[in-house]
Write a structure and sequence with these properties.
The chain is α+β, with helices and mostly antiparallel strands. It has 11 helices and 17 strands. It is 36% helix and 20% strand. It is globular, with a radius of gyration of 20 Å.
């Protein structure tokens, strides 16, 4: 197993090439965050009743933001009691422990993933709506951490909102984009994913075809491989050098890894091993920022228990329908009427119609 650190990759030429490149980046990091979120929630559930010093330490790891104070009262009304909408924000910040992960230094912080997870009232099957990171949106006025107003902006990429106004601004932007009330948010980063894998002692994956590697990527033969945290991060972010080089191939790798990681947790009985459990929880909470209603181990544990009937392996993932922007073919815009149908179904906690899942912009 070797890491490929060869030279830069030449971008595809022409409109069709740019479209393919744009589409291929849409789910970048999405399954990383999903694996991290569900693994963390499972760990937190099992931590109830731990020693005070353990609780105090882990509780101190979690950072939180008061959404009501940061956003104010101009928010969508909650329509269905019992349904939950959780915004999962994956930060690609290289600050702190993220400094040398997956590609080295990148200034600022962007949302590598923006994922709205809907859990129906009394339901067991969650739905995750992935908003492509290069979607052009109108960012509303937001407040920075000092309470100063940041003027809104039209035609800005949604992945830039995190670095401009922080997670509360991402929540406000998604609420105004969708009309859906966001009940909670969870922000995670690369270091948290790597830490969880290393706390498990690695994860074993099996490939039916090789990964040939690309810039900053990983090279693996077909067969079984034990991956540490660093290589796991490269594995789930691989696109070029595997299958057809599109997001379809990358999604397949991410699904493989999610299944393998959950199997590893079960195999090790990690949730029944106090020492292993502590390492998992410590790694997960270090990378975590939430809204204030989830901003403690107790609150996070209570929330996780309320979701115990939801099976992460049956989660349906839908990409927000988008179309290529006519001005800049490297960007996409929200497609109508599909998006309106999708958001309306979520607001009313109804089944999402098939027509709302069709996106004019498709992988090439």
């Amino acid at each position: 197993m070797t890491a490929d650190t060869s030279g830069s990759t030449t971008p595809p030429e022409g409109r069709a090439g740019r479209r393919r490149s744009t589409t291929r980046t849409r789910t970048r990091g999405q399954k990383i965050r999903r694996v991290l979120l569900w693994s963390l929630l499972a760990v937190v559930v099992a931590l109830g009743g731990g020693a005070w010093w353990t609780y105090n330490h882990l509780n101190g790891n979690i950072q939180s933001v008061d959404l009501d104070q940061a956003i104010g009262d101009n928010r969508p009304q909650k329509v269905v009691t019992g349904a939950q909408n959780i915004l999962v924000i994956g930060s690609d910040s290289r600050a702190g422990d993220n400094g040398e992960l997956d590609g080295g230094q990148v200034s600022g912080a962007r949302s590598d993933t923006t994922l709205l997870m809907h859990i129906p009232a009394g339901g067991t099957k969650a739905t995750a709506i992935s908003i492509p990171r290069d979607t052009l949106i109108t960012r509303p006025d937001c407040k920075d951490e000092n309470g100063r107003t940041i003027p809104g902006q039209k035609r800005t990429m949604i992945n830039s909102v995190l670095g401009t106004g922080g997670p509360a601004c991402v929540v406000k932007t998604v609420e105004q984009l969708s009309g859906v009330r966001v009940d909670h948010f969870v922000q995670v980063d690369f270091a948290g994913f790597k830490g969880l894998v290393d706390a498990l002692g690695g994860v074993t994956v099996t490939l039916d075809q090789p990964i040939k590697g690309s810039k900053g990527g990983i090279t693996l033969d077909a067969g079984e491989h034990r991956l540490n945290g660093t290589d796991s991060l490269k594995f789930v972010r691989t696109r070029k050098g595997y299958a057809d080089g599109s997001d379809l191939g990358r999604i397949g790798l991410q699904q493989k890894f999610m299944t393998a990681m959950l199997a590893e947790i079960k195999k090790q009985d990690a949730l029944g091993n106090p020492a292993r459990l502590y390492k998992l929880a410590d790694a997960g909470t270090k990378s975590l920022t939430t809204d204030s209603e989830l901003g403690s181990l107790t609150k996070l544990s209570d929330f996780a228990k309320s979701m115990k009937g939801v099976d992460p392996q049956t989660m349906e993932t839908i990409m927000l329908p988008v179309a290529y922007d006519k001005i800049d073919p490297n960007r996409v815009i929200v497609a109508e009427p599909q998006a309106t149908q999708l958001w309306e179904a979520l607001r009313k906690d109804e089944k999402i119609p098939a027509s709302a899942k069709k996106s004019p912009a498709k992988a090439g």
